[in-house]
């Protein structure tokens, strides 16, 4: 049976020293990304400097990530780094004031796998920008993009020091459910890449987006939640759906 690539500190909370010693410049099937193309991306870390997850800036003081990343972690032990595309770049550090985990988060099924981090100061600076959140569920077959610092493949020996990006396509939840042989709720959305392309351990919490084109607005649609091991072997990656949890987000931060 396939095993979920649940990103928890015990599995992939790598210090920058250990990350740098096991690097390949890509995630599974990805390409190196510029932070100017993903200015809403942040890396979430624990002190003194341990990367645990990706996240997305959704408002001046707020970052969205996966609940599994920060469940049981004190806000005093968390900070985010913004404005840089590599884990060994200094970037701008922001301390975390509070952690809000979705009240219906199910750690076993990974439903409602979303958390909001309130920072102690306003996010601002070069290549630091919030992303608009979608209000509409994604349609099947939509072109999407994912960025993150995920592992390059199974068995998770390599992480990417560089921010990587990959193009994926959304698939219907019923098809996703069939391929995983388990329920996929409306609080999730799924993507599927070509063979040997997809999310992996270390990408959890990272943003899934749809580009707005020349005249449109780039929007946040999902937060990486789980997939199967080995990574990128034909089964869909599963995300928390921003459209589905938007009402809760609004009650927490007014975003």
Write a concise synopsis of the structure shown.
The protein has 255 residues and is mostly beta strands.
Strand order of the largest sheet: 4-5-6-9-8-7
Strand content is 25-35%
CATH architecture of the largest domain: Beta Barrel
CATH superfamily label of the largest domain: Trypsin-like serine proteases
CATH topology of the largest domain: Thrombin, subunit H
Number of strands: 17
The coarse overall form would be: globular
Count of helical regions: 5
Question: How far is it from the N-terminal to the C-terminal residue, by CA?
Answer: 40 Å
Keywords: Disulfide bond, Hydrolase, Protease, Serine protease, Signal
Signal peptide: 1-21
Domain Peptidase S1: 27-254
Protein name: Peptidase S1 domain-containing protein
Q: How would you describe the overall organization of this protein?
A:
With 255 residues, this protein is mainly beta. The protein folds into two domains: 35-129, Thrombin, subunit H, CATH 2.40.10; 131-244, Trypsin-like serine proteases (Thrombin, subunit H, Beta Barrel). The protein has helices spanning 9-12, 16-20, 67-70, 173-180, 242-253, and strands spanning 3-4, 14-15, 31-32, 41-46, 50-59, 62-65, 78-82, 92-101, 115-119, 132-133, 143-148, 164-171, 188-192, 207-210, 219-226, 228-229, 237-241. A six-stranded antiparallel barrel has the order 4-5-6-9-8-7. A six-stranded antiparallel beta barrel has the order 11-12-13-17-15-14. A two-stranded antiparallel sheet has the order 1-16. It is globular, with a radius of gyration of 16 Å. 48% of the residues are buried. Mean pLDDT is 86; it is low at 5-26.
């Amino acid at each position: 049976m396939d095993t979920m690539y649940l990103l928890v500190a015990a599995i992939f909370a790598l210090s920058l020293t250990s990350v740098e010693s096991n690097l390949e410049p890509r995630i599974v099937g990805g390409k190196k990304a510029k932070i100017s193309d993903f200015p809403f991306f942040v890396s979430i870390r624990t002190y003194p400097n341990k990367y645990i997850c990706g996240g997305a800036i959704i408002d001046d003081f707020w970052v969205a990530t996966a609940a599994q990343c920060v469940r049981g972690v004190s806000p005093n032990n968390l900070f985010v780094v913004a404005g840089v595309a590599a884990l060994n770049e200094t970037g701008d550090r922001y301390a975390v004031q509070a952690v809000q985990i979705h009240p219906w988060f199910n750690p076993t099924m990974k439903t409602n796998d979303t958390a909001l981090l309130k920072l102690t100061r306003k996010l601002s600076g070069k290549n630091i920008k919030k992303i608009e959140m979608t209000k509409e569920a994604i349609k099947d077959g939509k072109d999407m993009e994912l960025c993150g610092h995920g592992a390059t493949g199974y068995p998770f020996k390599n992480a990417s020091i560089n921010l990587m990006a990959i193009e994926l396509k959304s698939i219907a939840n019923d098809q996703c459910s069939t391929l995983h042989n388990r329920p996929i709720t409306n609080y999730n959305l799924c993507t599927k890449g070509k063979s040997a392309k997809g999310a992996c351990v270390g990408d959890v919490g990272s943003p899934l987006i749809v580009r707005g084109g020349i005249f449109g607005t780039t929007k946040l649609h999902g937060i990486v939640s789980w997939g199967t091991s080995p990574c990128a072997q034909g089964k869909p990656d599963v995300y928390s759906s921003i459209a589905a949890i938007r009402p809760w987000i609004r009650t927490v931060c007014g975003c």
